Amino acid sequence: MNNLGFPKEFLWGGALAANQCEGAYLEGGKGLSNVDLCPAGENRFNVMLGNIKELKPLVNESYPSHEAIDFYHKFKEDIALFAEMGFKCLRISIAWSRIFPNGDDKDPNEEGLKFYDEVFDEMIKHNIEPVVTICHFDLPVALIENYGGWTNRKLVGFYENYATTLFKRYKDKVKYWMSFNEINMLLHLPFMGAGIRFKEGENPTEVKYQAAHHELMASALATKALKEIIPNAMMGCMLAAGAVYPYSCNPEDVQRAMEIERENYLFIDVQAKGKYPGYGKRFFRENNINIKMEDGDLEILKNNTVDYIGFSYYSSRCASVDPALLTDGNVFATVKNPYLKASEWGWQIDPMGLRITCNQLYDRYEKPLFIVENGLGAVDKVEEDGQIIDDYRIEYLREHIKEMKEAILDGVDLIGYTPWGCIDLVSASTGEMKKRYGFIYVDKDDKGNGTLERKKKKSFYWYKKVIGSNGEEI
């Protein structure tokens, strides 16, 4: 009750994803994955939606993620830089197709397992706790080609085998796990989130929620396996979060904001509470959605809930029943909030929204929260003397950290903070390199030119002080 700041054991760190930083997309026995097929440029969004005919890279498209920032070969150098900042943890993901190139292979790829052994060993050497996402949009292409992605129930078993393989291999190295990255994203980017390509005559909404049920089952079975293999480990879920404000006090706007929030909460309600909520059942009934379940599914969901709630927060959203007010903002359509500024990419900047989101999630689930993504994508300029003065990023993060502290004072149990893209990487939403998030600059441009040299930005030294003072010096 007397603690007025961040807990002593608070996990300060940063976050990365395999498909956005590793590169080496076909090295070491790795198979092709869905995210390897998402090009930069005007076709990217279409592909992420599922409008893709050929499940292979095309010669007339650009795929920056194929090399990315070459973390695959440079991880020791990068982890040393994270250690210099004082990271207590590092959130990374494992590429499913590095471990099982086709997703349904009988035996895992030893070279892929060995790579992550080396990454974890390097982190542990520097006293950095691994926080591991089992599936960060990485789905082996063979599972899409042969089974239809997550629309097929068989993927539950393939994922369970994959997760179990990881738990057995890394049981002495990894304590914090997350089953799926931004699980609610499959509603908005179905190919990226679940490997879905719609067939003619299908009910797209039903297809997406059927795939979601399979992912929720896979998450529950992975949680069960984790508790059996590593009893002291923690399993988290992961939500693309952000408070949704009604644009006005018109009750219809308030209702619309609640409906949008519930669309996202449904997944976490199942993972954290162990059951489909009443509002979800009503939505299924009224929209002709018939989810096929097997005997015992509901019991498995009920008995295998997550230990903590991981979530990303970049901005809040605003809702109105007036369609004329809608604008773009990240993947989510939103109404422009007149009280907020926006980033160069139109994402509304709302630090207080992080405090509000923390309180909403903690009130709803009463489980520890872990902010596993937060950050500002911006164009960074290298000055003539080599400096990168990213005061705008420092300001963004500083204001969000202030609100995290307020949330803790509100009584929220917050266990860690891993800002997104702690080293520059390929943007998930646009496929660009120029949209940078990191404390560390990587010399590479959108056309693939550059030395891949790492340079410390001004924010590197700032964040080092933040961590060193446990959030007191911001």
What does this structure look like?
The protein has 15 helices and 16 strands. The model has no long low-confidence stretch (mean pLDDT 96). By secondary structure, the chain is α/β, with parallel strands linked by helices. The strands form five sheets. Strands 1-2-3-4-5-7-13-14 form an eight-stranded parallel barrel, surrounded by five helices. Strands 6-8 form a two-stranded parallel sheet. It has helices spanning 18-21, 44-49, 71-85, 96-99, 110-125, 141-147, 154-170, 190-194, 204-229, 251-273, 278-286, 297-303, 351-365, 391-409, 458-468; strands at residues 11-15, 89-93, 129-135, 176-180, 234-241, 244-246, 308-313, 317-319, 326-329, 332-335, 341-342, 348-349, 369-373, 414-417, 440-442, 454-456.
Mean pLDDT: 96
The rounded Rg comes to: 21 Å
Q: How many strands appear in the DSSP assignment?
A: 16
* Number of helices, counting only DSSP H or I runs of 4 residues or more: 15
List its traits.
474 residues, alpha/beta, two-stranded parallel ribbon
Summarize, please:
The protein is of the alpha/beta class and 474 residues long. It has helices at residues 18-21, 44-49, 71-85, 96-99, 110-125, 141-147, 154-170, 190-194, 204-229, 251-273, 278-286, 297-303, 351-365, 391-409, 458-468; strands at residues 11-15, 89-93, 129-135, 176-180, 234-241, 244-246, 308-313, 317-319, 326-329, 332-335, 341-342, 348-349, 369-373, 414-417, 440-442, 454-456.
